[in-house]
Each structure stands twice: as structure tokens, then as C-alpha cells.
């Protein structure tokens, strides 16, 4: 039986690894992509979203990891993701993520008042990251 090896690396080192994945679902900047063993080689930029790793086809159980974008490469049944950060749903500090969401929302309002496009974009990215972490923590 063929499996997919999954590795998620952040600046802090190896954040997640799995040697026996049957299906991995990621969201690229162009849309959702499912990766199974035997997938053709691909490199794609990832959106801020969750990575779902399923080990068995017959079960709904899966590992869910919040990633803040990054780059994904698939080659020779190895899926490697390089991301700024990655957290399993069980490791997310929800109160911290909720505080980050509130801070980002406040920064968005300030940037809109000041018409500062760069600050607005950075605050919107921070808000997306916080919301992603909150959503993944509930799964």
C-alpha cells in the first residue's frame, strides 16, 4: 500500500510530520487541491487556510493544521510545506487568537480612517490569520 509522507516546516523547525497519509487537502491561491499518493510533481503557493491530512479512507478522522500561507511541493510521494507558522487544531491558543482578531479589526478601522492602504492590507492579513486559527481550533 502506498502512502504520502507529509512534512510542514516553519522557521522554528519541523512543525508536523506524517508518514502514512492517504489524502491531503490544501488551499492554494488558485483553489482547493487534493493530493494522494502517486500525485504528479507540483509546486504551488498556499493561501492562509487549513491543511487536512487524512490517514485512512474509511474514517472521517483527520489531522487539521492551521497554516499562514506558504509554499507546497509534491514529489515522489512526499508533500512538503514551508510556512511562516503551522499549528495543529489541538495546539491553538484560542484566547490569544481571539485577541489577535480584535487587534486586527481595530487596526483595519484605523487604517481605513487614515486611508493607509499598506496598513490596511497588513491588518487584513493579520485578521485572516486569526480567523483561520479560530476556525481550525473548533475542528
From TrEMBL:
Domain ATP synthase epsilon subunit C-terminal, first and last residues per copy: 91-138
SUPFAM superfamilies, alphabetized: Epsilon subunit of F1F0-ATP synthase C-terminal domain, Epsilon subunit of F1F0-ATP synthase N-terminal domain
Topology in the lipid bilayer: Peripheral membrane protein
Domain ATP synthase F1 complex delta/epsilon subunit N-terminal: from-to ranges: 4-86
Main location: membrane
Family, per entry: Belongs to the ATPase epsilon chain family.
Protein name per UniProt: ATP synthase epsilon chain
Organism of this sequence: Vagococcus intermedius
Amino acid at each position: 500500500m502506498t502512502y504520502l509522507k507529509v512534512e510542514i516546516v516553519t522557521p522554528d523547525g519541523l512543525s508536523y510530520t506524517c508518514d502514512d497519509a492517504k489524502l491531503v487537502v490544501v488551499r492554494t491561491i488558485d483553489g482547493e487541491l487534493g493530493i494522494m499518493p502517486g500525485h504528479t510533481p507540483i509546486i504551488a503557493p498556499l493561501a492562509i487556510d487549513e491543511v487536512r491530512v487524512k490517514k485512512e479512507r474509511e474514517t472521517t478522522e483527520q489531522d487539521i493544521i492551521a497554516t499562514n500561507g506558504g509554499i507546497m511541493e509534491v514529489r515522489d510521494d512526499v508533500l512538503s510545506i514551508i510556512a511562516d507558522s503551522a499549528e495543529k487544531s489541538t495546539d491553538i491558543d484560542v484566547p490569544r487568537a481571539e485577541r489577535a482578531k480584535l487587534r486586527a479589526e481595530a487596526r483595519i478601522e484605523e487604517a481605513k480612517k487614515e486611508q493607509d492602504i499598506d496598513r490596511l492590507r497588513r491588518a487584513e492579513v493579520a485578521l485572516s490569520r486569526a480567523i483561520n486559527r479560530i476556525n481550525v481550533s473548533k475542528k
